[in-house]
Design the sequence.
């Protein structure tokens, strides 16, 4: 019952944030960040209609995707990438959210080529300049997209970012807005395997602000599993 109520509360907040920004609820995809979720919790959420789950660790992705084999689940990899784990991530992930290094591109290309798969990725951008966070700086994004053009088995679907935790999410609004502006600007300059459609930004603490500023995916864990803001 707790999960059901929490999920319904999050969905309601997503709807209201979309409404406030003049957008349709269907434009925002909820990716449940299931890093700390048990199989039983994920089963309950699946029965409640959740289809998009995001995992941070390759070993958890392996275990959980095996358990739910045959179910209509879309797996997202949302954690930091270790190149030696890419061989486990590519066969199981519809979308990899956290790509920002050339060696990651090379390994993804290698694994996707072997599978005959076009791997969808998002480029992680360190919008807020935190030293502890991964991601490209704003000024390096365009050059990185040019490198992405060289890979035949990768499609870049947009950008991802993580904001720092702050008591007042209004303090990070500017960063979400700037990433949307960057996406809009660069989407006019690139084509082919660069399809800048998605903005994965916003987590439990700040997803409403992110939606108001253009997020198309929100990665939510604690608001569903623990409840509250």
Sequence:
């Amino acid at each position: 019952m707790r999960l059901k109520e929490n999920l319904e509360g999050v969905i309601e907040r997503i709807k209201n944030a979309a409404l406030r920004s003049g957008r349709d609820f269907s434009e925002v995809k909820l990716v449940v960040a299931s890093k700390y979720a048990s199989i039983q919790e994920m089963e309950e959420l699946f029965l409640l209609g959740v289809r998009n789950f995001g995992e941070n660790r390759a070993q958890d992705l392996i275990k959980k995707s095996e358990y739910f084999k045959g179910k209509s689940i879309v797996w997202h990899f949302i954690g930091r990438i270790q190149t030696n784990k890419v061989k486990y991530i590519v066969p199981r992930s519809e979308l990899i959210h956290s790509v920002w290094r050339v060696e990651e591109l090379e390994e993804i290309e290698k694994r996707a080529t072997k599978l005959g798969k076009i791997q969808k990725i998002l480029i992680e951008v360190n919008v807020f300049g935190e030293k502890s966070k991964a991601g490209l700086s704003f000024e390096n994004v365009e050059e990185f997209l040019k490198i992405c053009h060289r890979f035949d088995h990768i499609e870049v679907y947009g950008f991802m970012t993580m904001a720092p935790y702050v008591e007042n999410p209004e303090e990070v609004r500017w960063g979400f807005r700037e990433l949307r502006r960057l996406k809009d600007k660069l989407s006019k300059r690139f084509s082919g395997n660069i399809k800048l459609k998605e903005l994965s930004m916003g987590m439990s603490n700040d997803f409403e602000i992110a939606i108001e500023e253009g997020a198309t995916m929100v990665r939510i864990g604690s608001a569903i599993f623990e409840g509250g803001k």
